[in-house]
Specification:
This protein is mainly alpha-helical. The chain is about 75% helix and about 5% strand.
Length: about 300
């Protein structure tokens, strides 16, 4: 493995260790802000490369962005959901994010016929880049938190014991559908940009800038199913009041990651002279950013005003 990969995995490993020992060492209030600061720094270094800043150290730090994002959402999930639920969530996310990709590349099912650029190594089973699996975990968690912000604005998560089966299932289904759109709307911008930069190649193309419609159906289904399964597991257990560990910083940080995806791929679209990609990304992604940011602002402003 390369030095860079060791560094990327080390960032995730340290986050996992800190998550395990955070209660014993009383790090619960410090590890997330610390990782968030470093994450923002990696993002700024990554963006600086778009503006011609080709300093080796900033390029290295910038390349850590997606792995640092993954480390950050692990910590975020641990604080918000607890370690047990965090483990369950990411097992679901990795299974539903990675296995369909492996099947898609190998057999052309789910997404369509495509393959990844060999430069994106290391690969899982020689088919799917490790970065893709990491990215799926981040995207699925973002889609979960976005719907969490929506449902917990003046309400709470559904519980089979408290709310009954029918009500809970209807709400769970609705939240999972929204989560699916949070993910697929992101891909409406990502996919044409990455295809244009040879990140992956479609063997059998389609009507959306050479991308088949099955790809977007696959994106929707993965986020939808991952969220539905996890929320079903949540609803079966005792609902916990997470308000004591929620904060504007916690919610806003996840919205910011989604915004960063928009900024990275939106600016890439400009550099590619494909501003139509940016226009599409604006209409699909920005509404989710504005809505969740507004709900977060109203929620915590009310809490502050109520003392």
């Amino acid at each position: 493995m390369s030095f860079l990969l060791y560094l990327e995995l080390l960032i995730v490993f340290i986050a996992v260790v800190l998550v395990i020992v955070k209660d014993q060492l009383q790090l619960k209030k410090t590890i997330f802000p610390a990782y968030l600061v470093f994450f923002i720094f990696t993002f700024l270094c990554y963006m600086s490369t778009f503006f011609g800043l080709k300093v080796p150290i900033t390029e290295i730090i910038g390349s850590l962005w997606i792995y640092t994002a993954f480390a950050l959402v692990i910590i975020h999930s641990s604080i918000r959901l607890g370690n047990k639920k965090t483990l369950i969530f990411y097992v679901i996310a990795f299974i539903l994010g990675t296995i369909p990709e492996l099947i898609g590349v190998k057999y052309g099912w789910i997404f369509g016929h495509y393959y990844y650029n060999p430069a994106l190594s290391p690969f899982i089973l020689g088919l799917v880049p490790l970065t893709t699996a990491i990215s799926w975990a981040v995207v699925i968690y973002m889609s979960y938190i976005f719907t969490d912000i929506i449902i917990k604005f003046g309400s709470r998560k559904p519980s089979f014991k408290v709310d009954g089966m029918i009500y809970s299932l209807v709400v769970l289904l609705g939240l999972a559908i929204i989560s699916g759109f949070v993910a697929v709307n992101l891909d409406m911008l990502i996919d044409p940009v990455v295809v244009a930069t040879d990140g992956w190649f479609w063997i059998v193309g389609g009507p959306y800038y050479g991308i088949p419609m099955g790809n977007f159906m696959g994106w929707f289904l993965i986020a939808f199913l991952a969220n539905l399964i996890f929320r079903f597991i949540e609803a079966r257990g005792d609902t916990e009041d997470e308000r004591s560990i929620e904060s504007p910083l916690m919610d806003t940080s996840i919205i910011a990651i989604y915004l960063m995806f928009f900024m990275i791929y939106g600016y890439s679209a400009i550099l590619l002279s494909h501003t139509e990609y940016l226009l599409i990304g604006t209409t699909t992604m920005v509404p989710f950013i504005v809505i969740t940011a507004l709900l977060t602002f109203i929620k915590y402003t009310k809490v502050k005003d109520n003392g």
